[in-house]
Model the fold of this input.
Amino acid sequence: MLKGFFNVPTPINEPILGYAPGSQERELLQAALTDARAKQTDIPMYIGGKEVFTEAKVKITPPHDHQHILGQYSKGEKSHVSQAIDAALAAKADWENLAWEQRAAIFLKAADLIAGPYRYKLNAATMLGQSKNAYQAEIDSACEFIDFLRFNVSYMADVYKQQPVSSKGTWNRVEQRPLEGFVFALTPFNFTAIAGNLPTSAAMMGNVVVWKPANTQIYAANVIMQILKEAGLPDGVINLIYVSGPDAGDVIFSHPDFAGIHFTGSTGVFQNIWKTIGNNIHKFKTYPRIVGETGGKDFIVVHSSADVEVSSTAILRGAFEYQGQKCSAASRIYVAKSLWPQIKELMLRDLATFRMGPTEDFSNYINAVIDENSFDKLANYIEAAKKDAGVEIMAGGNYDKSKGYFIEPTVLVVQDPKSTTMCEELFGPVVTVFVYNDEEFEQTLEVVDQTSIYALTGSIIAQDRYAVAKATHVLRNAAGNFYINDKCTGAVVGQQPFGGARGSGTNDKAGSMINLLRWVSPRTIKETFDPAKDYRYPFLAED
Done:
């Protein structure tokens, strides 16, 4: 192998822009927001490189301003799913035979386009379409997506350069083939970076993809496709369609060339998909790869030795950044009784300074939840809590959807660690606190481990190293991403590969080599240079 053959640019995490008042990036982002709001975009599907429009139009509005129309997308049907599969399979041969360096160059260029000329357009689309503030959009649709693309190229090179040992007279090698068929990428609303990573990581390894984003993320998904096309992605490699889940499933999970699904979304949907694949397993040419990250009921445990300011900050950031709509958001909190009065005081002090409103106003820390269904679900939980004698509403508890889907950051304090909001995934700005007796720390850890079906993220906050060690061990299966003296959100590509087990998914760690290995099928090749010409071994010789 030629020296330097696997040299690819060393990935470095994309620097986060601060958007401070008076900064150039703030002015550029505000200009992009103004431009996006001033027009209505007619968004097509992308099938085989062609823009596909339909008569069925669905309007797109900001969650924080649901009377303002950003544009409309063309809703597809089953025939478009079939067309997308056909386009993907037609592109497959040329794409998988393209040298991996050529594929890598496309995605590295896409990363540079996002870091440069598309940064503000993509961030603005995320802020408007998904109601993320400037910082949350920056760390998502800019930095994390850029990191996914650059780090995955590096991981791809690492995958290809891993080769077996060869004994004398032979040459052993491994060929990492793309899957035999197409990959279905089903992506969520809450992270533009995830919506971009799920189809591109599979495509990077030589696969062709049918991509269905959440309807509430289509506004930014359209920008992603524009970026990929400008980066030189060939027609048909990634096909973007807007169809109902049942329509997509009926066609895709019955197609003989279905080779895998890359999924992020709800546990219920993922389990139903798995069941459908299992029922149809006899229809497929190969056993499909099933890769999914689903829900979380993520925790923070505060030990009696914890720093109270660190604890309060971790709870507030972990629970309320992006309105608690991160898979990793802090949802259940366990606080030592001796520290609770101080932590409560600090939390109430800071909660009083939270400003809630549209993302275009950069002074707002809290924005809207994603849609009316989410709003209504959260409002019902809050109303049930108000009627529960075992629940104290420490802060918040108000909501209003007259202009946007606004849920006030709400803190519930419960007497029972197995109460409803300590166990069920809410996916919004509602966090529940249970105060435990200091001497019951170890028992509380057992409760944390046994309370939820999920195992995505969690953290321990403590200065006592024995407490840290105990929590790290007892909770080893309760979180795929575990944090010590920090909030339970904010995984960074290349630093904390993300994913959980139990009901939270297959734990295939997005943003790592582990994930990319799911999108290849290895073939081992052995070549013998001087083959045997006689079947007899030495032990058969006569004395």
